[in-house]
Design a protein that fits this description.
The protein has 481 residues and is of the alpha/beta class. Helices cover 42% and strands 17% of the residues.
């Protein structure tokens, strides 16, 4: 008798986990040269397949922009690879000859990679590379709205890895996508660590299963334009960050805070670069179609161009509009667009000075996005440094937030899993790399004599057999007394 779909999906997840574990036991015996050869081949395959995987992702999810998805695939395939290729992740990592301590790597085992629909193929490429680089296997649990392109990307990475010498089954992907399968995979004994990129509910579930996990938090990044900023560049950076792949990267700008003395110039520059400022009535209409009554985002508007959103909202905007800007007088439940918007809509506030901007940014982050990302555009380094106190893990200066956060336009570690620290319930505040997926053993040699117990009364610093016997006898006597 055939299994029903849920049961067969659970069985598939279990089989993939077992197969990946068997393969990983073989992989962990490889030396650094063998691992690096496999990772190089995977990178090459990802570059070669970047375009059709991007097309597949756009066609399936209807999110984002084809050209930007290609760039993200290449970012994962090339930038991430260039960053990790020379990392020492196998065998002895470091030897302190003076203090006689040796550090050696050993893999975690099998990684479970939870993949979102917003950045599906690029995240598969990235997670495959960092997992194999650290001598782990990986099994992917796809978002149901992107399962075909996620499976295709996983297949590309698996075939390249095996062709370069990796064992069969080292990279797996669930094809029968159900919540039951995802849950079974998370709880499977052969899964050692969970690398979760997705919605807050799924990330929280990953942390709740009782095994190590790396997850991300919600983004809602404020961008502050301070009065000393180079206005044209600041506006260009924000436009670039918000429009890249139609705003689906969680580090993308979600509100702009404008310093009052330069407001008119900033507004004029935004308009010159293709932004449309919504009227109060239009803000209400856009709010109703972009956001749900509970403050979540309407999935039909994720990663969409302004034209699509305007049509849904029943408003008219100029041809060629790149983003919609919503001036708001407050934040929270009465102002839906103050929450995270993974699309081409940006909230806008005016502040009287950097101190008010600082306080408002904190309020917006505490509302949603604490632990994630903040950006500032300024030429005053003293003021810039005041913003390091923000409750976020990435403070980005004079750069697009979405691209700076992932390490594309900054020297942060290139990554598509951005830790948000304990502020957001995350186990790391860093951009996740292969070093997060290895255990480190430490061998330490004795370099000084043990201090003798006072009971031993031995001036030489060592304890003889007779001393030990006397100590034991005395302790027993005291216990009896």
């Amino acid at each position: 008798m055939a299994l029903d779909y849920d049961l067969s999906s659970i069985q598939e997840a279990r089989d993939l986990a077992r197969k990946a574990k068997e393969a990983q036991r073989i992989l962990e015996g490889y030396d650094q040269e063998q691992i690096d050869r496999i990772v190089a081949a995977m990178s090459e395959a990802a570059v070669a397949n970047a375009e059709w995987l991007a097309r597949m992702a756009v066609d399936e999810t209807k999110f984002g922009i084809f050209q930007d998805k290609v760039k993200k695939n290449l970012f994962a395939a090339k930038n991430v690879y260039e960053f990790i290729k020379d990392m020492k992740t196998v065998g002895i990592l470091y030897e302190d000859t003076r203090n006689k301590v040796i550090e050696a790597a050993y893999p975690m085992g099998v990684v479970m990679g939870i993949i979102p629909s917003t950045n599906p193929t690029s995240t598969v490429i990235y997670k495959s590379l960092i997992s194999i680089k650290s001598a782990n296997g990986i099994v992917f649990a796809p978002h149901p709205n992107a399962s075909r392109c996620i499976n295709a990307a996983a297949q590309v990475m698996h075939e390249a890895a095996v062709k370069a010498g990796a064992p069969e089954g080292i990279i797996g992907c669930v094809t029968k996508v159900t919540m039951a399968a995802t849950d079974a995979l998370m709880k499977h004994d052969d899964i050692s660590v969970i690398l979760a990129t997705g919605g807050p509910g799924l990330v929280k579930a990953a942390y709740s299963v009782g095994k190590p996990a790396y997850g991300v938090g919600a983004g809602n990044a404020p961008a502050f334009i301070e009065r000393s900023a180079h206005i044209k560049k600041a506006v260009s950076d924000i436009m670039t960050g918000k429009t890249f792949d139609n705003g689906v990267i969680c580090a993308s700008e979600n509100s702009v805070l404008i310093d009052a003395p330069i407001k008119d110039k900033v507004v004029a520059e935004f308009e010159a670069q293709g932004a449309y400022f919504l009227s109060k009535e239009e803000v209400e209409k856009v709010s109703r179609v972009v956001m749900t009554p509970k403050g979540g985002m309407n999935s039909s508007c994720v990663g969409k161009e302004p034209k699509v959103i305007a049509e849904k909202a029943g408003i008219s905007i100029p041809e060629g509009t790149r983003i919609l800007i919503a001036p708001l007088e407050g934040y929270g439940p009465g102002f839906p667009l103050s929450y995270e918007k993974l699309t081409t809509v940006l909230a806008c506030y005016t502040v009287k000075d950097w101190e008010e901007g600082c306080l408002l940014a904190i309020e917006l982050l505490n509302l949603m996005g604490a632990g994630h990302t903040f950006s500032i555009h300024s030429q005053d380094d003293a003021i810039i440094r005041e913003f390091i106190r923000k409750p976020v893990s990435r403070i980005l200066v004079n750069t697009p937030a979405s691209l700076g956060g992932i390490g594309y336009t900054t020297k942060l570690a290139p990554s598509l899993t951005l830790g948000c620290g304990t502020i957001a319930g995350s186990s790391t505040s860093y951009n996740v790399t292969p070093m997060h997926l290895i255990n480190i053993k430490r061998m330490a040699y004795g370099v000084s004599e043990a201090v003798a117990s006072e009971r031993g009364n031995c001036s030489s610093g060592t304890v003889s057999t007779e001393d030990i016997a006397a100590i034991v006898k005395k302790v027993l006597a005291e216990l009896k007394g």
